[in-house]
Amino acid sequence: MHCGTAGAFFAFLLLLLATSVTTHAGDVTIEGRVFTESGPLSDALVSAHRSYSDLQRKVQPAATAKTDKDGVYQLHIPPGSYHFTATGESGSRKFFAYHGSNPISVDKENFWLALLATATDSPPVYVDGSPGVQGRITYKGKPLEGAYLALYKPESKTFKGLGVKTESIGADGRFRLQVEPGNYVVTARKIVTGKGNRPLQKGDLYCYYSQNPLEVKADLTAQIEFSCYPKIDRNDFVATPPVKSDAIKTVAELSATSKSGIRGKVTDANNRPLAGMSVLAYRLTSPVFQMYHVYHGSEFSAETDERGNFLIPIDTDGDYGVVARDTLGDGPHRGELYGLYQGNVRHAVTFKQGELVGNINIIAGKVMDVPAQGKERVQSETIVGTPAGTPVILDDTVITQDTVWQGEIIIQGVISVKRGATLTIRPGTVVRFKKIDRDQNDVGDGEILVEGRLIARGNADNKIVFTSAQEKPAANDWSYLQFLAANRGNIIENCRFEYAFAGVMIHYADVRISDSVFQHNNRGIHYNTADLNVDHCSFIDNRIGIRFMRLEGNVLIANNDISRNDIGVLFVRQHVNAVDFDLLNRGKEMPRFEGNNIFANRTYNFSLGEGQERDITVAGNWWGSIKRETIAELMYDRSKDNSLSKILYEPFLPEPVRNAGARGLRPSATGQATTGGTRP
């Protein structure tokens, strides 16, 4: 039988009240008050648990205290991190409070902690249906409009940021979402400004289901209802004269005045401050940058003031990736402001408890924005390499000013092109990546990450080559040339990409690629939201020629040869933890695949990934045959899996496109352009 957290507290109430409280030297004194919507809650039990697991398992709290007739309590506790709750009764009703800032760090300074209690929620009611949860959320008895629901695994360290699944709530406060069977911590939030999924501020609403964790059962839908309280705004919850002395700070005030954390400034490329930006610090668990930082929220965050300044309070040692955004809840979309800290290639700040790390400055810009009219700024260029000289070896490097590469460049790390800087690669340059696998995932970490701009213009006689530096090269020896919310005007012409995880990866950027060859890679090109033109390129002997995820951006794939790959083109469904998770795949800007030769791929010429429910139109291409049944055999869609959508490939071309693929390549006996791999 399911037993909620609040019920567990009542079961232990008498035992805990009988427990004597012993104060030790070095203990911190926490004072506070417990309220319901009707006023102070007397005789309530306030408890501090060392972990959420202890709370679940009914382990005796680290400290407890009982409120007086005014709802005031005082407890003494050693420094540490705790989950604070309160339980009590008023009349015939039971009440429960779970503090929305849990876990709260207790250091050396005494503080005031108010707990706002709502009526204890009823246990879930299970009805026949698909596994999931449905119900209603209220505030002061009225349906809550404009909120979102977030589900977390109970073993999560915190229940902040984006959860396992996060969805908007209807105007009537009702919600319904499907999740896999299992146990979940159910919460909800309302951002009063309506500004995405930013961290909670004064006046925002926080909602915690008192019967957490909720069990979601197979073939059953759990029905629940729970209510909310305002963050750092007790007066909006209940009108009661204050009793707190001004001499003691609240936990929110301590956090706001903390001298420990990460401090810096966010500006645009012209050094103008950007106010109202959310700046988030993510605990880094990998020695390399992870793309999920682009999407997720974080419990460590701040908002820039009118001068663009921010201070993120942090209480835990570690490395933190830092990003500035004006809208949270998904990857950045066109026109949104976005910028990573670029003091190093991991975008990382190392923090130790009690320290203040300053001068963490970020340049942010509009994603996929139309460039300003007028002459480009002129700045001096740094020349790296010589046309026929000794190879230049580069370790982890942030390129902060316009730079030119030539000759032979050997990369043994990550190269990051900072926003506002341009990396130009001259014809005939060979860029080799040593296989360095810091995160032990069998993919080399060598990468060029472009937030600024890249111009790589080879020519028919002097292609620019991106390849492995290994003696026996293989796919996945290096990561990719990646464009991430980069400046506009990126150009790749007459280049060759070999032995990468993905030759070119494009996220939220504008890139034009022509007359280039992608061979022996795990993926030739991988993109999601992009303004992308791929013209006269050849994709040969890759695992996947082109892989894409979203229908967002102006994309034209034309006059290319895509053959001898395991899969020619793969369209996968977006899987990102974001608000309105199920709506992420609803873009309407269909990519145009026109005049391509997509044929003779080993498994499928075109394939849809698991769960893909969007039809894709790819008419006007040559598929290696004039027979529909032959073409259909190499299409993976609803014809082979009823759960998928359709690939609409008719009308198709009756013969191959002449001169498709990278121009200047020698044709093979089958008519397919071929290249010889570049060896170190």
Write up this protein:
The structure is a single chain. β62 (666-667) and β63 (673-674) form a beta hairpin. 48% of the residues are buried. Residues 1-21 and 666-680 have low confidence and may be disordered. The protein folds into 4 domains: 1-257, Immunoglobulins (Immunoglobulin-like), CATH 2.60.40.10; 258-366, Immunoglobulin-like, CATH 2.60.40; 373-537; 549-661, no CATH class. 5% of the residues lie in helices and 40% in strands. The chain is built from 6 helices and 63 strands. By secondary structure, the chain is mainly beta. The N and C termini lie far apart (65 Å). The strands form 10 sheets. Strands 12, 13, 14, 15, 16, 17, 18, 19, 20 and 21 form a 10-stranded mixed β-sheet that branches.
Residue share in helix: under 10%
Q: Could you name the CATH topology of the largest domain?
A: Immunoglobulin-like
Q: Strand fraction band?
A: 35-45%
Query: With helices defined by DSSP (H or I, 4 residues minimum), what is the helix count?
Result: 6
Instruction: Compute the separation of the termini in Å.
Output: 65 Å
**Structural domain tally:** 4
Determine Rg (CA atoms, Å). 29 Å
Tell the overall outline. globular
Strand tally, please?
63
Largest sheet: 10 strands, mixed
Low-confidence stretches: 1-21, 666-680
What is the class of the largest domain in the CATH system? Mainly Beta
The pLDDT mean sits at 87
Name of the CATH homologous superfamily of the largest domain? Immunoglobulins
Structural class of the secondary elements? mainly beta
Name of the CATH architecture of the largest domain = Sandwich
